[in-house]
Amino acid sequence: xxxxxxxxxxxxxxxxxxxxxxxxxxxxxxxxxxxxxxxxxxxxxxxxxxxxxxxxxxxxxxxxxxxxxxxxxxxxxxxxxxxxxxxxxxxxxxxxxxxxxxxxxxxxxxxxxxxxxxxxxxxxxxxxxxxxxxxxxxxxxxxxxxxxxxxxxxxxxxxxxxxxxxxxxxxxxxxxxxxxxxxxxxxxxxxxxxxxxxxxxxxxxxxxxxxxxxxxxxxxxxxxxxxxxxxxxxxxxxxxxxxxxxxxxxxxxxxxxxxxxxxxxxxxxxxxxxxxxxxxxxxxxxxxxxxxxxxxxxxxxxxxxxxxxxxxxxxxxxxxxxxxxxxxxxxxxxxxxxxxxxxxxxxxxxxxxxxxxxxxxxxxxxxxxxxxxxxxxxxxxxxxxxxxxxxxxxxxxxxxxxxxxxxxxxxxxxxxxxxxxxxxxxxxxxxxxxxxxxxxxxxxxxxxxxxxxxxxxxxxxxxxxxxxxxxxxxxxxxxxxxxxxxxxxxxxxxxxxxxxxxxxxxxxxxxxxxxxxxxxxxxxxxxxxxxxxxxxxxxxxxxxxxxxxxxxxxxxxxxxxxxxxxxxxxxxxxxxxxxxxxxxxxxxxxxxxxxxxxxxxxxxxxxxxxxxxxxxxxxxxxxxxxxxxxxxxxxxxxxxxxxxxxxxxxxxxxxxxxxxxxxxxxxxxxxxxxxxxxxxxxxxxxxxxxxxxxxxxxxxxxxxxxxxxxxxxxxxxxxxxxxxxxxxxxxxxxxxxxxxxxxxxxxxxxxxxxxxxxxxxxxxxxxxxxxxxxxxxxxxxxxxxxxxxxxxxxxxxxxxxxxxxxxxxxxxxxxxxxxxxxxxxxxxxxxxxxxxxxxxxxxxxxxxxxxxxxxxxxxxxxxxxxxxxxxxxxxxxxxxxxxxxxxxxxxxxxxxxxxxxxxxxxxxxxxxxxxxxxxxxxxxxxxxxxxxxxxxxxxxxxxxxxxxxxxxxxxxxxxxxxxxxxxxxxxxxxxxxxxxxxxxxxxxxxxxxxxxxxxxxxxxxxxxxxxxxxxxxxxxxxxxxxxxxxxxxxxxxxxxxxxxxxxxxxxxxxxxxxxxxxxxxxxxxxxxxxxxxxxxxxxxxxxxxxxxxxxxxxxxxxxxxxxxxxxxxxxxxxxxxxxxxxxxxxxxxxxxxxxxxxxxxxxxxxxxxxxxxxxxxxxxxxxxxxxxxxxxxxxxxxxxxxxxxxxxxxxxxxxxxxxxxxxxxxxxxxxxxxxxxxxxxxxxxxxxxxxxxxxxxxxxxxxxxxxxxxxxxxxxxxxxxxxxxxxxxxxxxxxxxxxxxxxxxxxxxxxxxxxxxxxxxxxxxxxxxxxxxxxxxxxxxxxxxxxxxxxxxxxxxxxxxxxxxxxxxxxxxx
Length: 1358
Description:
Residues 1-6, 632-640, 905-919, 1082-1101, 1112-1150, 1183-1193 and 1207-1285 have low confidence and may be disordered. The protein is built from 63 helices and 4 strands. Helices cover 64% and strands 1% of the residues. Strand 1 and strand 2 (1202-1203) form a beta hairpin.
């Protein structure tokens, strides 16, 4: 039954009708009765009508007499009241409230009815007219009373009611009355725990239990009221907040963890709520009082400390939103209170405090606060500005006193430096000095052989200083921490060489003029000093140091060029000097190339981001750089430098000014770059090519065209001289010794200029590269295809306009193309096929096409021939070519599928390969059908390549191609009966793809045919076919289940499946044992890389494995399984080593000492540096102890060169000294006592295994004849063994000539008796045991007798 107000009746029935609970059935029954009453009155079952019927029924005494009926009616009323208009509720307020109060009081012991009644009471009370609040005070007080009820559900329902009522009173005068009622209840409940505690302290011992019960009751009530306050405290009037906060703060004194935590939650809700009535002044005072609650901050409870930290963080963020000036005055106090928590013992407290401090600095320290502090500091004001106070507080945390909190303090310091920025650099001087000391300590530790990279403090200090360099700029940092390189060389100070890598890593958006005015002269001075020192043999080491420092300073040039603020001015001033260095110093060329590329790429990026299309080139040079760097055979590293996002300050005007300066110097820089490119070896031209390509996009088109024509002329000149047989002489030999090398050089150089060429230039480039496609020289042909590939991919305008010519050119090169050029040829084919398959494909005309063939058929014919070539390339020898072919197939299929998706509703009943269905399935079906035609090829090579291509497409598009599997799989499996091993190998890979990629129902349908086909080769071991078959069967069993495979596998091959199942069970047992052992060690199942050793991969989320068709793939699959056990064993070893490292670290945590053994001066300014160095040394010592002893120190000559001595010479020296081996940790220590071992090893025995044999040969007899004391070592009898054991019976220590006691005699050792364990003692036969114990009783008897005599003698002496 529906109503016109949202179907409340239907909702109630839907909620309760299907329930078997008696309460729900009662609700449905009462609802039916009420509906009958409403219908009898001729009314619709609207919420108002239902409300009236229910209230009139509840007013009757006979209704209130039944608790079940009352509960059901209250449940219905609670569902309806939310839809009753508030005007109606106000008009019936007095009667409704009176009835609900009676029900609440009568249902005090019935929780279900009470909850519904409270719900209704809160609805009615919230609807009261605020101007008539007095009648609503009693029901509101009733809600307050039940908000502290012991029953959780009742209490929660009352709390929700309080929230509804107070939310309805916002902005009205009645809010003050409701807030006063809340305050009165809090005044009665919150002081209870303190009063109960005092009463318990004064109570006698007999009433101790009663006093403790009173305390527990008071605390419970206080917790309940605090839970209510957490919900409503932000809705209370502002005048009540102050006394209420005072009562809350007093609870901290009790140091009761739960009370303190609940109090903190209430205060956090008050401080963070945006609708709170707490003003900025009151909020600041409240935060001040919280920070001074020492009883709360001194507690060791982790949850409480985190809650307090969160309270301070959210409170100050809110205070900054309300009044930044008050927040600025209070903020130093907050940081002074939180910073010591960085040294807390709990890791969670340290991390939470660190994050809170960073958020406070980021959200509450604004630019006005920093500027005010800087201005007051310059005026030498008596009062310390807040920002300066904060900087000093953070710097103080980096002293030795707070060493335990250095990691967190350094993170906070980095955030502070970033917030201060360049404007606040004067405030950060002390902080920068502290960071410099710590970084210097890490550098000292590294120079002494320790590894500071493993020390968190060292890395944190470097990161913090790096943040300062990025935000403040290098000039501000170097003003406080100068490099001091020249002074250090002169012995007047200490160099901060560790600062240069930080500059190179973190400098950005700086002034290029600073580098030219400060660092460039310093680099030149070091270069001059190195040149002078090089002339003196005694100063060779100094020359090397100066040259190294000079290069390091030059490496910072690229960082200063990154989004430089003054390129238009500074580059014009220093371009000539940089160009001179580029021309004269070959070791600086790569550095300068990277800097030039950075300037050009970033300014081009800024211009394009602003919408500029002229003067920025015609294609992205980054794509060309990637293509240049992709040719690993001859291009080497291209040094890719991506420009990234444009900073806000890099406006269009700035970029245009910078680009203009770069264009003006293009005529100077391009010849230098060209000459360096030509004169450099082919494998090392990557950076030069990247710089030329980047400059080509910025250079003036006229200038670039002139240089391009010169390059093309030289390229054509090389071809003409080669055709005429004229030998190259003089300048004609530039670019290489052979004509082939010179052609490659100039084609590569022309390719570098391509991003800046217009259509005419690209046309000239294409025509110059086209004849080289028919070259028989592999290198030349490869470069030519590289040029064409770039044109096809990055200049689609030219490709579309010259599609006919490019198509004919590529089709003509099918026969002449060489393997080395296949990869770039495939890229050309990819661009051409995508163009021909597009909607705006140009017209092409082929000479061998049918006369009546249309453009669609012609294009399909061309694409088909190209697809056949792509299929053959999946069998190329070059791995990169194979990868390119696979990726090309997938990208073509995806593009054709998107351009021509299959029609909806045509998924079945179309025969595979039918002519009339070629275009009805869409573009993916067309390509797949083209590939499918290769299965009937004449050569096994083509058939195998087709199977591999089909496997790749089926792997990627198994969903859209699933309908073809039923026809495709039998055709492919039939190839397993051929004699060509090449085809069989490809089919096994195809079956593996089917097993791991297709849906389980599809694989199950063809499982029998698959198993029968592949098991034909299960006994063939050549080409690892046997192993491949086993891997496929195992994957099928893993995916489909062993039972499904067992039901379809032939009988003669069931043993293989049984073996696979046993191996799986054994592996599971081993994994379970390893897991239990790891859990026992407390290490979990994590590997040494932090991840789980289990590697699960779903069929849908797996990635294509390019080794699926290789011979080593099955072998790698087996190695993966074997590696799991190895990893588990390595993990156990790592845990053992880790424990020893930890114990060593714990044993060496003492403070370092000064020279001479004096204690460390903790007040010294350089103590932080010493402590960082000491910490890094401890970490390196522990790491070296875990890794084992190593000796990585080399001898050095006077000029600093290392002296490497051959191992053979060192071994001879050790052997002359009498050692048996060449290492300090000898493997032969346990055989030194063997007779003949020393002689055998001296004669050159290869190992311990052959040492005895070699030793015997040196004496001309067998090892069986070697003896000690006349007994054979080669074949000792049991009697001989017993005779040897009697040597330790203690008889040789007996005194002679009637004397008593033991004597050392000639043995020089303390008297002892040793009886070796004989396994015969464990024999059940008494005779065997007696034989093994023969003589043991005598030894024990003698020991006891000697002990008695010794005791008597001792007593006589005393």
